[in-house]
Amino acid sequence: MAGAGVKMGPEWSFATATYAHPTISHRRLHRPATSLHQCELMSTWINIIPWLLALPPALWELRNVSKSYGWILGACAGAIVFGGIFLWISVLWLSAANLDNLGYDSIGVAQVMGLLLGPPAGAAFIAKRTGLAAGVFAGVVVGGCVLYITIAIGIGIYGK
């Protein structure tokens, strides 16, 4: 409570309801400590890459499904494709970026290779018979299984 005569420190502001630490900025405190995030422009372009890679297949699926089944189902199919591909690229990117930080060489490589090859293989197998949205959904399921199985194996072997 701010009453009359209550002295607030110079780092507290009721107007913005924020607290600024005197020596560490909010930006430095919450930024990942990777070399890719040193330059703001580079960080922005790197963060856009998964979005750019996921958008064309999603728009393609939106167009194909909306012709046959209508815009609502086309939008749902496009959202499934976009979300699945974006999730796959993001998880693969994070796994590959953390591979050098891990002390678990073989299980880390197996995880990255499984995440690289598993979801597209599952998507290609299912998409031949149905459509791209169902294939991407199956790829997400395969990728989740690969990720959790390799995490469980890593915990079993290394204990953490």
Q: Strands, helices and their partners?
A:
Layout: E1 12-13, E2 18-19, H1 26-30, H2 40-69, H3 71-97, H4 105-127, H5 132-158
Helix pairs in contact: 2-3, 3-4, 3-5, 4-5
The main pleated sheet reads as: 2 strands, antiparallel
Count of individual helical segments = 5
User: Which strand order do you get reading across the main beta sheet?
Assistant: 1-2
Helix content: over 70%
- The secondary-structure element order is EEHHHHH
Q: From the helix content, strand content and strand pairing, which structural class follows?
A: mainly alpha
Gyration radius from CA atoms, angstroms: 22 Å
| Mean residue pLDDT | 75
Distance between the termini: 44 Å
Strands, count: 2
What does it look like?
- The chain is mainly alpha-helical.
- The chain has a domain at 53-158.
- The chain contains five helices and two strands; from the N terminus they run E-E-H-H-H-H-H.
- The chain has helices spanning 26-30, 40-69, 71-97, 105-127, 132-158, and strands spanning 12-13, 18-19.
- A two-stranded antiparallel sheet has the order 1-2.
- Strand 1 (12-13) and strand 2 (18-19) form a beta hairpin.
- Helix 3 packs parallel to helix 5 (132-158) and helix 4 packs antiparallel against helix 5.
